[in-house]
Amino acid sequence: MSKPRILVAREIFPEVIARLEKHFEVEYNSADEAWSPAQLIAHLQGKSGVFTTGSNRIDAEVLKACPELKICANMAVGYNNFDIGAMTAAGVLATNTPDVLTETTADFGFALLMAAARRMTESEHYLRAGKWTKWSFDMFAGSDIHGSTLGILGMGRIGQGIARRGALGFGMKVIYHNRSRLDASLEAECKASYVSKKELLETADHLVLVLPYSPESHHAIGAAELAMMKPTATLVNIARGGIVDDAALARALRHKQIAAAGIDVFEGEPSVHPDLLTVPNVVLTPHIASATVPTRLAMANLAADNLIEFFSGRTPPSPVNPAVLAGR
Q1: CA 210-83-76 angle, 5° bins
Q2: DSSP assignment of 133-151, as one string?
Q3: If we measure between CA atoms, which residue out of 147, 182, 152, 184 comes closest to residue 167?
């Protein structure tokens, strides 16, 4: 019996490829080329499964051109590169990689918050440029983390991880806003209080965005929301590009409407809005919040698990549109 044919659309760990090759006939983008939609469609011909990353868009056009496709396994917790409605209608399963990156991403979110609030990038550039010639009392004076108010917009697993770090590690007062309120026991565990979005924006000293991207959350932080924040506040986005209006953020930073920002995700990435590159009070990183070797390997293996379990006739560990499985 021949093995199912799958495509691995970006470069991943060699040991994960070796594992997949035990179960599948694998075509592998080992050159890690950034394929156009037409190129992706060409490589998907005859494939019944695909291992994707966030850079691989699966939409109605791709699905129509690839009728043999049955599953798309995303190596990411987010899946805004998938048109879930179109995939469900076509009977194509979508999977993601939740849980395995929670703590690593929360670590990075907190690191980005601290780097922005304490002006680390600004001060390093100053030092490297040879401008540090004397001490002064206000040189790169930033904001305290300990004892301040931490605001979290989006209180899923990663948001809860951020909350625990803030409350237990730094004695911060934690407030949050979410589509639905956490149950009382989970709020107590995170030492977090539910507030309206308005109160969150107006009260937080440091605001961290951890909500999923959707049409409803597009530009959830724009000019109006930034104007509601404290002029001493820090904004951190480790969620998805498009949740923040990057042009509005650059203006707010330039005019000191807020003090600083730390941004790991961008609208239209890997392109970055040029105005963000010209303001000093922002820390910019290239979508690396989950980038530790153990976590990325765990993500790749979970994506592989989803493919292996699906083609073995079992339920994959992390389906996004499980209704597809009912029709198998």
Answers
A1: 45
A2: -S--TTTT-----TTSEEE
A3: 147
Helix (H) or strand (E) holding 77: none
Catalytic residues: 240, 269, 287
Strands 149-153 and 206-209: parallel
Does residue 270 have a cis bond before it (omega within 30 degrees)?
Answer: yes
- Distance, in Å, from the CA atom of 77 to the CA atom of 54, rounded to the nearest integer, reads 9
Q: What is the CATH code of the structural domain delimited by 102-284?
A: 3.40.50.720
- The CA dihedral of 34, 273, 227, 288, to the nearest 10 degrees, is 40
Percentages helix, strand, coil for the chain (3-state, rounded to 5) are 40, 15, 45
Q: What DSSP line would sit under 74-119, residue for residue?
A: ESSS--TTB-HHHHHHTT-EEE---STTHHHHHHHHHHHHHHHHTT
CATH code of the domain made up of 5-98+293-326:
3.40.50.720
End-to-end, the C-alpha distance of the chain in Å comes to: 20
The answer to whether the beta carbons of residues 249 and 235 sit under 8 Å apart is yes
Q: Could you give the 3-state DSSP secondary structure of residue 95?
A: strand
pLDDT tens string, the chain, 328 residues long: the values are 789 999 999 999 999 999 999 999 999 999 999 999 999 999 999 999 999 998 899 999 999 999 999 999 999 998 989 999 999 999 999 999 999 999 999 999 999 999 999 999 999 999 999 999 999 999 999 999 999 999 999 999 999 999 999 999 999 999 999 999 999 999 999 999 999 999 999 999 999 999 999 899 999 999 999 999 999 999 999 999 999 999 999 999 999 999 999 999 999 999 999 999 999 999 999 999 999 999 999 999 999 999 999 999 999 999 999 999 987 7
* Residues 233, 149: Cα–Cα separation, whole Å: 10
Q: Do domains 5-98+293-326 and 102-284 have the same CATH topology?
A: yes
CB atoms within 10 A of CB 243: 24
Distance CA 311, CA 306 (A): 9
* pTM tops 0.70: yes
